[in-house]
Amino acid sequence: MAENVIKLQLNQQQLELMDRTIARGVAPDRIALVRLALREYVAARQAETKAKPNDREAQR
Q1: pTM of the complete model
Q2: pLDDT single digits (tens) 4-28
Q3: How many Å is the Cα radius of gyration of the chain?
């Protein structure tokens, strides 16, 4: 898989939320948490595009 570099600009509240999520054991650090979030985002978008057009219409 090709490596892509992204730059996030998060405010203090967002950083604190990330840190609380890490403290709960969801991910070991901020980088891992961002990678997890991106994987979940991509999986959700792929599931949307694989849905039949009629299925997507019913969700609106």
Answers
A1: 0.74
A2: 899 999 999 999 999 999 999 999 9
A3: 15
